[in-house]
Amino acid sequence: MSSDEERPGGGPADPDGGAPGTGTETATAPAKRSGPRAAVPGDAKRTRTGIVIDALTTANTFTVTVLAIVLALAVGAVVIALSDQAVLDSMKYFFARPGDTFAAAGHAIGTAYAALFTGSIVDPETLNEAWWGMTSWSSVLSPISETLTYAAPLIGTGLAVALAFRAGMFNIGAQGQAMMGAIGAGLVGFMVPWPPVIGVIAALLGGLVGGGLWGLLAGWLKAKFGAHEVITTIMLNYIAAPSFVTWLVTQHGVQQPGRNDPISKAVEPNAQLPHLFGSGLRANLAIILVVGAALVVSWLLRRSTLGFEFRAVGSNPNAARTAGISLNRTYLLVMLFAGVLAGLGGASIVLGNTPNAITPSVVGSIGFDGITVALLGRGRPVGTVLAGLLFGALQAGAGQMQVTSQVPIEVSTIIQSLIVIFVAAPALVRAIFRLRAQRVGALGQNLAKGWNG
Amino acid sequence: MKATATARWLLRKETVLRRVRGVRLVTVLAVGGLSLAVAAGCGKPPAKNASGGSGGGQYKACMVTDTGGIDDHSFNASAWQGMQDAKAADSSVVVQNTQSSSEQDYEPNLTKFVQAKCDLIVGVGGLMADAVTKVAKANPKQQFAIIDANVALSNVYSMQFNTAQPAFQAGYLAAGMSKTGKVATYGGLKIPPVTIYEDGFAEGVAYYNQQKHKSVKLLGWDEKSQKGVFANSFTDQNKGQSITKTFLSQGADIVLPVAGGTAQGTASTTAASNGKQSTIFVDFDGCVSASTYCKTFLTSVTKGIAGSVKDAVVAGQKGKPLTGSYIGDLKNKGVGLAPYHDWDSKVPGALKTEVTQIGADIESGKITVKSTAQPK
Lengths: 453, 376
Description:
The complex is a heterodimer.
Chain A: H1 48-57, H2 61-82, H3 85-91, H4 98-118, H5 124-131, H6 137-166, H7 174-191, H8 198-225, H9 229-249, H10 286-303, H11 305-315, H12 317-322, H13 327-350, H14 366-376, H15 381-405, H16 410-424, H17 426-433, H18 445-449
Chain B: H1 2-12, H2 16-41, E1 59-64, H3 75-89, E2 93-98, H4 106-115, E3 120-124, H5 129-138, E4 143-147, E5 156-161, H6 164-177, E6 182-187, H7 192-212, E7 217-219, E8 221-222, E9 227-228, H8 237-249, E10 254-258, H9 263-271, E11 278-283, H10 286-289, E12 297-303, H11 305-317, E13 324-328, E14 335-337, H12 349-364
Parallel strand pairs in B: 1-2, 1-3, 3-4, 4-5, 5-13, 6-7, 6-10, 10-11, 11-12
Antiparallel strand pairs in B: 8-9, 12-14
GO molecular function, one term (chain A): transmembrane transporter activity
Membrane topology (chain A): Multi-pass membrane protein
GO cellular component, one term (chain A): plasma membrane
């Protein structure tokens, strides 16, 4: 709060033009935002505190997102309590001694969410032990390293979906594009005995090309034949995995020697992404690459003519065409870029950690999770990075929840899904917390377009 | 002096800022109090029990599932059954599992169990081999075990199963029991734990034809080209039904589905034929795990994951070293044919004897099963 006085009149921090109510702003030319923090005279009358309280009690993007997370965690707590054996046991005599049930529920929820935190951010106990030299500092970084490792591919595929959202397209194909990216990166990574540095770059490029081509195919089908991208990308997902990849990794020359199961040769060590905190921790260069990619996408959308065209097509394709923007070119380029981003996500898995090889399920469900990440990030690059980090943390923490308090891993999935459901239904969150409605109906405006684009 | 200056500066401000000063005071108090509390709570913790294991005479066995999850009605479920059997057999055994939702989870899940000081960590599934190798190398004092893969490290106990052997017997039995001269098989996915059954089954049929100069046909799998019919699912019962109906319309009367839960679709289809058609179940004894369809199960090809895991856990608890490789085969009863149950009266005695004899011949090496999917 004290920092309020230090920034007189400064507008609310607005990293991506994505602050509350800027839905209308996207229609203006991107070059307008000039100079560092021009003072807004109208704000001077209201106190800073007043603005903050105002912002927190209005149903804007930020408030709704935070409250959606709170609500999801609350529902998750109920699920955790109901899946706990001690709670169920004490429920049998609930009316005789209700305190037992509540104590058991409190214990179950407390240990579970504590594990969610210690598994994804930092474990205070380890921190203290490291301070006293009883354990290594790398074990303190272990949870955050896990979060970053899980987040990186999600941010890649999230950006792939988000970019398409902004151009009015619903890219369900991040899964297939990530798979093709993993295949491209893997093939380049083990086919050639690479020298250091060059190997990583070459393998990454292989991943970008693989994903990009798969995305471009959907864009081409839309531009050339008018095939809806929702249909084509779903079908391309099926073709990429399990069909194509299972065939590919069982071919002679691709399959790992001495193995009967579908797994390719391992990527050359020189083509693997360097680890950030030493080889003991899994976090690697991928997280830096995807954050860089997010900045590039952000610049593309806000500052470049091309990005302006993308957004124009996303807002109103007919108007954009009348204004002389080629729809076909936009479809092709958007899907190409989306494919490249998803390919980066897929490549980062194969080049990042074990098994460092292509398998039919190596990318997990990052493509579909990417859709939820993009939805939570409101289709904006910075939002997508934050959403990816949150979901990465939830996945990393879910593992710890399983180990320390035997909470089934599905609870984490439920929480992730609920967050997105609440975010998609801002009116519900508004009603629950009695927030004031926002004047400009900006929430999810662009996202809803994807279906009929 | 600095404090008075601040105070004077504050007094100059109007009423609005009084609230700010209040906030500041609270903040100062809070920060101060917190740092005091932190300082008091951050003393050196007492040293933990440094030795591995959970201590207190307990033996903690921990299992990491593959992406199929704990309720997959296949090897994850069997392995977990084995863990629970071990717990039932010895009260000092504590068991725990964690599920992997993607292949990315294998390594962190294994590592978390190392940190949780498990005495034995069991990884389920061949695809976990790389992760187990890496984590086992990084923790040479930690005991591991893996199912359906061979990891050649001294602290890893590898458990594999040669189900081609009993599947060979099942193929011979099916060929002998078929009235139409056609039998069929299909898989869930074309992966070695599946195709090994189909290979063995195909060889059993071929052996029957060779011995009896018959020409019983096998639909759905060709061992030489390694091509066949696959449901691409281990859960979709409708898919199992439609594949089975196709086989039956082509004249097959005995079907071997190697497809987890999809196999229930086959069982329900052959069960409707009033004993003219039958199913051979795999992994478990079908009359136990899918007992509603018991009357249609000619027999089952069993894979003794549960028993082997139980033995491993119990041996580990007794302090025996777990190392090297275990291959479950007919000889050590790691795999086998289940009883005929409801079909016991319908299978001719001579055929029963031959099937048993084939088992003995495989054990003695008189018959060699050629499937390339067999564990080495």
